[in-house]
User: Which sequence fits this backbone?
């Protein structure tokens, strides 16, 4: 601004704009990619650990089952009595177990579990990365085997669990419950995880149920170290995708010169190309990561299968019958113990399944590229077309003014305007309490919420007992809200105006006294008023019913029928809202010059004529805004409804905003409630526009 | 009215209606107005937790019925107030309310004063948009804001059951009214004062803090009292955001006494009196400002 003659360089602006836009787009994409790679690396480590855990579980399920001894009597004096480890009989376990299962008899209870302990010990020896294995048997609440360094000496397995190990036992029971409920598998019921994975830095703790003969009999918990390989930020592709288009534009600008629109088009195309290329690159990287995962898991699976076979032969030299074959291809499972199916039985990576995953990746990538592209274009246009320069200039020139306003504006932006638009966006989703961490893409339902709110005309049903209203229906609530608003405002205006007219009479005795006492309801906090009236309308002990009984009437269950419930909330709101109208009217009445009335009297006007032609028109400028205001207040009178009737009976006295609140905070359907609120906002907006036109019209007449 | 019309001709100079029927009407209105207040006072000083002023036996006499609706305690007792501050956590809730309302006032008024000053004194790009945006924000319905605010403040920022989580939304609710109110007052302070200070070499900040703010003291006081009342009386956000009992504000705590299956009306009544008296007195003192501010806002909106 100091040198207005300085020519504007479109070239420079577009180069800077492109650099910033590409930095934004490619930068965010690169960060997302690094995150995705990290997630895949973590998942790979987890999947490998789960394969090991599955192998261990399979081994234990086959090795367990108990010794050749007769079943011990149900443990009674447990705890002190440590069964002697029956080393010499351990080898018989598997055969007996299988025989027992095949004969349909129960597996021997109160397993002393020598085979299990040996299996666990050998497994720990062959897996140096596994730091601890603990096996829980539900029968007798026993720690059947453990390689945990803490379970030494006194606490050596097998033993009864100590009271402070309750969480360990509870975890086992939780997994058992999960397996059982998943097996019953009610249609539509959410599956529950059957494997628990607890992650900590450099280590994983996994737990899975042990099943024998179709029953969950215990749990195995395995702690394992994992290699931490943090995915490094790949600088080279990022720098290439960021600086490539910038250099490209610089070179192109040699040809294009200072021509504005060709420069803009070139910059936009270059930005798009950079983002698209980076997206392709990201997809390749992700696919490679997934393939690497598949290979690593397949390798782990083969290794575990080999070890497991050796161990099985070792701990359970079979008496005759072959053990159930191991199924290593079913070891790569998700937390519900459903095979992922990414590795085939032959130990190969299943390319078809991988392709499906890659397709999902590509879909997500496309959405990200579109979003980032739009943001990038906005930034490019902002800088390139000179808005940034103008904004910057204004910021410098009016820096004092902005410094004063920005704190308040920032607060409003973050806590008013952003939530407002976020609420708008939410109204197109099925967000609820469980999925608020998901992105809006994943919960998007379009206009579905609005369709189900506005499209449901089932406002009443014709039944044998006559018409039955559906109190949950939007249109019922809307009609009730309108009736509520109109009756309240009518009561408020009538009472307020009447009282004001009386108090405005000349030489009226005790005027200040009346005035102060009549304002009290307005001064009282609304929530206290509401709670008081709620108490006074109590059926048995409430004062209102006692007054009715004093005159011989029956006690009324106020909140059991829609009409009496409505009367109760109406009384409460009428009580707290008339003083406002009274004060406004009184103020307006006092400002009417008294010589107007004197002149009218001289002309022989009656009191009614005076009221109609002097008082009412003079009141209008004050009364109309007050009525508008109180319509909006009453429409939004949350507290009275919420605290006095709470919508009883059955939502019959719910108004729109209490209904929206209940949907949000009692049913936790945030998306639906947001749509409901948007509809309310539209109604208020329509009302606001309409009243604005009407007041303009009245002003024009006045 | 008709009666006075018929006599209209000979009472022309004094044709006011008769006062005594009006006095009867007003006294009836006063009873309706004051009864709930007297009722609360009665319950609070009754020393019990019952909703009823006195028990009505099955075959009660007329006098017993009348006794049951007379807002006068059977025995005067301060025990409800004593245990409110003894074995009930009401002192803690009151303190929470004081903290939240004071923080709202300080932060809200500071932000509003600076913004209002800029809107009043400077002409800059975005001024109209900014002012209008404050007005428009008043139109957003509470519940539409509640859901996203809850997700942002409680679930994203993790500020549920904290003072910050209440103060921030309260401030932003109070700011628009405060800005318009303060701007209106700043507009009436003559600009010449500041210009002469500028010539004397005062900085912009000095002018604002040393000259303008002291001059605007009455408006600042009124604005501060209003934002204090906003924070003190707010119920919905506090009831939704504060889940831990020790973080309740007074309104949520009072609801806690009589909500759900709890029927401690004595504590509720005593607590209501303590919570309501300061704001009711403030209100009586401020109502003329409130009325003018509200109607001015309505006309502009």
Assistant:
């Amino acid at each position: 601004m100091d040198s207005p003659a300085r020519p504007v360089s479109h070239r420079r602006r577009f180069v800077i704009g492109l650099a910033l836009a590409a930095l934004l787009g490619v930068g965010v994409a690169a960060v997302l990619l690094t995150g995705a790679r990290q997630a895949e690396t973590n998942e790979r480590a987890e999947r490998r650990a789960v394969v090991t855990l599955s192998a261990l579980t399979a081994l234990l399920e086959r090795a367990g089952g108990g010794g050749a001894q007769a079943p011990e009597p149900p443990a009674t004096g447990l705890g002190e009595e440590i069964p002697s480890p029956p080393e010499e009989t351990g080898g018989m376990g598997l055969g007996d177990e299988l025989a027992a299962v095949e004969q349909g008899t129960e597996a021997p209870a109160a397993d002393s579990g020598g085979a299990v302990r040996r299996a666990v010990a050998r497994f720990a020896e062959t897996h140096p990365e596994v730091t601890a294995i603990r096996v829980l048997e539900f029968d007798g609440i026993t720690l059947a085997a453990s390689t945990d360094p803490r379970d030494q000496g006194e606490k050596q397995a097998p033993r009864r669990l100590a009271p402070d190990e309750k969480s360990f036992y509870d975890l086992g029971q939780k997994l058992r419950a999960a397996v059982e409920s998943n097996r019953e598998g009610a249609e539509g019921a959410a599956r529950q995880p059957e494997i628990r994975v607890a992650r900590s830095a450099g280590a994983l703790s996994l737990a899975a149920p042990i099943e024998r003969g179709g029953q969950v009999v215990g749990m195995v918990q395995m702690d394992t170290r994992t290699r931490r390989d943090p995915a490094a930020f790949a600088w080279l592709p990022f720098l290439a995708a960021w600086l490539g288009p910038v250099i490209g534009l610089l070179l192109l600008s040699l040809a294009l010169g200072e021509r504005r629109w060709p420069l803009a088009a070139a910059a936009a195309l270059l930005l798009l190309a950079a983002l698209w290329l980076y997206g392709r690159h990201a997809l390749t990287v992700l696919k490679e990561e997934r393939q690497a995962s598949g290979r690593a898991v397949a390798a782990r699976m083969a290794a575990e299968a080999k070890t497991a076979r050796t161990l099985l032969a070792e701990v359970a030299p079979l008496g005759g019958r072959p053990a159930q074959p191991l199924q290593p291809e079913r070891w790569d499972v998700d937390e519900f113990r459903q095979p992922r199916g990414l590795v085939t039985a032959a130990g190969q990576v299943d390319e078809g399944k991988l392709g499906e995953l890659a397709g999902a990746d590509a879909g997500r990538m496309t959405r990200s590229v579109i979003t980032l592209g739009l943001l990038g274009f906005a930034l490019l246009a902002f800088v390139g077309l000179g808005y940034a320069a103008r904004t910057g200039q204004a910021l410098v020139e009016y820096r004092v003014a902005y410094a004063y306003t920005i704190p308040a504006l920032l607060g409003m932006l973050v806590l008013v305007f952003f939530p407002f638009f976020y609420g708008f966006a939410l109204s197109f989703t099925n967000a609820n309490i469980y999925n608020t961490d998901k992105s809006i893409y994943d919960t998007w339902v379009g206009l579905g919420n609005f369709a189900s709110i506005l499209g449901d005309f089932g406002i009443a049903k014709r039944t044998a007992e006559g018409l039955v209203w559906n109190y949950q229906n939007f249109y019922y609530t809307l009609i009730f809200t309108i009736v509520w608003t109109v009756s309240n405002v009518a009561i408020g205006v009538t009472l307020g105006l009447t009282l004001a007219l009386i108090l405005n009479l000349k030489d009226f005795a005790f005027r200040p006294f009346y005035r102060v006492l009549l304002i009290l309801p307005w001064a009282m906090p609304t929530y206290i008023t509401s709670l008081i009236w709620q108490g006074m309308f109590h059926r048995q002990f409430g004062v209102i019913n006692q007054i009715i009984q004093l005159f011989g009437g029956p006690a009324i269950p106020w909140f059991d029928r829609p009409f009496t419930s409505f009367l109760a909330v109406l009384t409460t709101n009428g009580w707290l809202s008339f003083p406002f109208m009274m004060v406004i009217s009184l103020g307006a009445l006092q400002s009417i010059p008294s010589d107007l009335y004197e002149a009218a009297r001289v002309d022989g006007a009656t009191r009614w004529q005076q009221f109609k032609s002097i008082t009412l028109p003079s009141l209008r400028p004050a009364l109309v805004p007050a009525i508008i205001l109180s319509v909006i207040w009453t429409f939004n009178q949350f507290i009275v409804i919420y605290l006095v009737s709470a919508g009883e009976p059955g939502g019959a006295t719910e108004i729109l905003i209490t209904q929206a609140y209940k949907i949000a905070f009692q049913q936790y359907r945030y998306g639906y409630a947001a749509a409901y609120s948007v509809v309310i906002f539209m109604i208020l907006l329509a009302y606001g526009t309409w009243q604005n036109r009407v007041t303009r019209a009245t002003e024009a007449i006045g | 009215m008709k009666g006075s019309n018929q006599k209209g001709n000979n009472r022309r100079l004094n044709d006011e209606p008769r006062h005594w029927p009006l006095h009867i009407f007003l006294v009836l209105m006063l009873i309706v107005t004051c009864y709930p207040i007297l009722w609360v006072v009665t319950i609070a000083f009754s020393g019990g937790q019952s909703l009823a002023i006195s028990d009505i036996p099955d075959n009660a006499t007329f006098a017993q019925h009348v006794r049951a609706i007379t807002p006068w305690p059977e025995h005067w007792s301060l025990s409800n107030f004593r245990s409110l501050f003894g074995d009930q956590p009401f002192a803690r809730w009151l303190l929470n309310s004081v903290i939240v309302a004071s923080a709202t006032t300080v932060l809200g008024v500071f932000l509003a004063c600076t913004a209002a000053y800029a809107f009043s004194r400077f002409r800059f790009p975005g001024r109209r948009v900014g002012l209008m945006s404050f007005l428009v924000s008043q139109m957003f319905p509470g519940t539409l804001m509640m859901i996203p605010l809850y997700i942002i403040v409680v679930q994203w920022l993790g500020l549920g059951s904290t003072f910050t989580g209440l103060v921030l939304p309260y401030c932003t609710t109070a700011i628009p009214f405060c800005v318009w109110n303060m701007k209106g007052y700043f507009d009436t302070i003559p600009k010449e004062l500041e210009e002469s200070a500028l010539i004397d070499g005062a900085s912009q900040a000095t002018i604002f803090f040393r000259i303008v703010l002291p001059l605007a003291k009455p408006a600042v006081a009124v604005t501060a009292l209003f934002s204090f009342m906003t924070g003190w009386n707010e119920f919905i956000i506090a009831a939704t955001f504060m889940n831990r009992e020790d973080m309740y504000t007074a309104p949520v705590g009072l609801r806690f006494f009589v909500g759900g299956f709890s029927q401690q009306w004595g504590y509720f009544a005593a607590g209501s009196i303590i919570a309501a008296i300061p704001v009711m007195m403030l209100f009586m003192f401020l109502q003329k400002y409130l009325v003018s501010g509200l109607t001015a806002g309505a006309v502009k909106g």
